[in-house]
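Encode chain A's predicted structure.
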Amino acid sequence: MEILIRRMQKTDLDGVIKIEEKAYGEHHWSKDSFMNELSNDLARYYSALNSDGELLGYAGCWQILEEVHITNIAVSPEYRRQKIGERLLRQIIDDCYKNKAKYITLEVRVSNNPAISLYEKYGFKSLGVRKGYYQNNNEDALIMWTENIFYDKFKLNYEKLTAGE
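Encoded structure for chain A:
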């Protein structure tokens, strides 16, 4: 499947909210929250679309100085396990290189093994837990960080993972 990753547009927001509802249930971000993020100078949001223009997933992050915090990566349930989340993550990492951000952090549900595996594949390490972080079920979140992405260990792994694309 051909996947296009581009900056999120206001016209994507209805689709984003549908994915939010499927992914997070009643405790999801509002359309206004995303609208605010699109006008936030610190934030960058991306949409993943197929060749028909259908929204498959989205991701967002904030850059503050040398650190990027991934706020969300979500893929519509019917399109999971097709490397869409991975492509969104790589878009964020590529932008970190362009914008000279050295470190990337995020929170992920302790039960979200597929996401944790993806982040570990890309060099994230768990450095702590936020107790009761998720409102819908009081689930804990792992706090994950990368080392400096400009260090050889991270760069060589990233180059290996993205070779040939």
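The first helix runs from residue 13 to 24.
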